[in-house]
Amino acid sequence: MRGDQAMVDTATWLLSAESHAALTRWVRPDLSEFPDYAHQFISLEWGGKREHATWFSDAEAAKPGHRTHPHGTHSGVSLASRSDEDAQIIRDTVAGALADAGEAGFGDYLLMYLALAGPEDAADAWEQAVALDDAAIDNGNTRAAMLAFIAAQMG
């Protein structure tokens, strides 16, 4: 509702909490206390157990795919890389996942996530997204939304 500052404040707080949780729990968690965990990304967390898996698919693309969508305008601010290390984590995560994205889906969301690594990565994601087969775009997404998101990250 326009003019409702309490609603604006609540929405801002909720989105901030969601973004913080995504970064610290799944997308770029501090894994320094878990040297045997071989991944940079947490796809499932069950209480105190962290896994590189999903409950619905063994495909590598499904692991980051279900944690990085849907992408809204807030994702560019909340999940974008803030350092060279963050950008490399995004690149590594996407590179490992894109190999089976055609089979598992999530290729569109992974390209949107790649765009968050930086403008050059966004340009690369754009080229791949333009060439992406229509069948590879999730039913909850559109080519226009995917390209608009990627374009917004290009600078």
TrEMBL record:
Species of the source: Demequina litorisediminis
Superkingdom to which the source organism belongs: Bacteria
UniProt name for this protein: Uncharacterized protein
Region (Disordered): 62-81
InterPro entries, per the entry: Endo-beta-glucanase
